[in-house]
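In the current project phase, we have settled on a layout for protein records. A sample record is reproduced below.
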Amino acid sequence: MKKLFFLLFGFFLSCPVFSQTSYYYPPGYFGLYNNQSTSARAQGMGFTTLTRAGIENSFYNPAAIGSSMAPIQAYANYANGHSYRPNSRYYFVGGAFKLKEKFSLGISYFSYQNPDPVWTTIIGSETFDTDFFSQHAISLLASYQVVEGLQVGLSANLMQENAVNGEKTNSDFIPSLGLQYQRPVEFFKSEKIQDQQFFGALSLSNFLFNGETNQEYESWVS
């Protein structure tokens, strides 16, 4: 167990780009990956979405549903506005449960809506005005505890974009793979510093490396 801890500790130190909010996202789903978070708590803590437990962080790291100690999880989050999309709205709802002690299942829905957006939609070389722009994702999740403190998660994310007045312009299947590791430690031997914990996380969105996503409207394709 000690060897596993130091191996993971060294890996997370050597790969800081994977910690917290550094992740790649496919073009077209900026409203889900790059705007408001699904968790108000994680956003208030500096977008600590990858290391936090619970269904509310599972869109960014599917292992999160297994890290929660609760046998049943339910969460809803609403955010209104964005720095350069002031009319936007963000809805998230999700639930998960432990099927067995080490195995968890979950489902979530995340939606970004922008009525009367400032920006137009460009598909191919054509510009379209729009009165309503939206994106949403339905996620099916599973997580398994490999060893004590180490969770591995997998999610199937069904993504869709409605970029021109509610018309579907894009849809994709984007799977995600995630890890979370937590262990009590005692880096500082002091009565004033208690309950010390080590957290490490890794999340790979689109881990099958599907390099193509298409936007289509009328006769235009991007």
Observations:
- The two ends are 50 Å apart (CA to CA).
- The chain has four helices and eleven strands.
